[in-house]
Amino acid sequence: MQExxxxxxxxxxxxxxxxxxxxxxxxxxxxxxxxxxxxxxxxERARLTAxxxxxxxxxxxxxxxxxxxxxxxxxxxxxxxxxxxxxEDYHRVEDLPExxxxxxxxxxxxxxxxxxxxxxxxxxxxxxCDLLSTIPMIRKYPSLNLGQAVMxxxxxxxxxxxxxxRKKERxxxxxxxxxxxxxxxxxxxxxxxxxxxxxxPRIMERLMLMGKDDLNLFHxxxxxxxxxxxxxxx
Length: 234
Hints:
Elements: E1 3-9, H1 14-26, E2 31-35, H2 44-50, H3 54-58, E3 61-63, H4 66-69, E4 75-79, E5 90-92, H5 96-101, E6 109-114, H6 123-128, E7 131-134, H7 146-165, H8 177-190, H9 199-208, H10 212-230
Parallel strand pairs: 1-2, 1-6, 2-3, 4-6, 4-7, 5-7
Helix pairs in contact: 1-2, 1-7, 8-9, 8-10
């Protein structure tokens, strides 16, 4: 079963962190990571809002940067209220369970990232994410607050746990997604693709959307390619 981790970047209000913890506990999640929090996530207001979910707060891991916080996460999905770049695909939150479930055992840990209450995720943090997502809304203002946004994602992503609960458990295979990403980067580098151009990130984004069968097929291609042109066996 894939583990879903929720990450809050620069959260500034104790109440929002507490509400996020309550949303996670209610929908069956337990993993919360805080990136450079601007408030005390163990403060009185956070605990009061968490209401029966203080264990989520007490077990929350704190990091200095998003890059550090995603160290063991295979698939990192950012959340945003509006598009920053017309060239990027923003996937609807209701589509995420299908996207994640299609990965099968090629992904062991998925991260969902939320930005600060005032400005959301920075362009630098968005660039660290593998995919970007959004909650479709009729109006962009007033937008959902942090606690509400976490609850919406938790409700939809609880379907991932429910799907896996109905399946017979099997041993997890090799975590291949990031391996494939690294090999794809080598191929793109060989053909002179500019990592800062428009096409490179689009190709990498589409790779992140591949299901298990397509990932395995691409992985096989990369193995033949690297053996032929780099004398690599893995």
